[in-house]
Amino acid sequence: MMNVAPCLAVKDPLATAAFYQKLGFGVLDTGPLNPEHPLLIITHDGTPALMIQTDTSLRELLPTMQPTNGCSGIHYFTVADFDATVERIRPHVEVVKDTVTNYDRTGREFFFRDPDGYILGIFGPDDINQFRTQSA
Description:
This protein is α/β, with parallel strands linked by helices.
């Protein structure tokens, strides 16, 4: 199975990693941080979920990339313990949209903004086992 882990351009990778750790995410130890190309990997349930590095570093790698932080989408994290997850992170985030039932009525969603302006969603399926079977 292939895992998708978006690489986000951020102002300060260490500060961004600290924010995600405060929310309960992990950070992979990738060895000494290269000050010219700082790259950190944020994990969710032990699996790489996001990569973060500076905008400058990303544009050095891909010069045709637009010179701005941002994304025209939402990054979602699926969790088995929706209520506990939302309760744990709510005090530390800017809530964009509070808990709502998703459009196909198979679970609930909660949206927040991180320090770099990215919008993230927490998705809690009504039946996590059925969701895992369908997405395997």
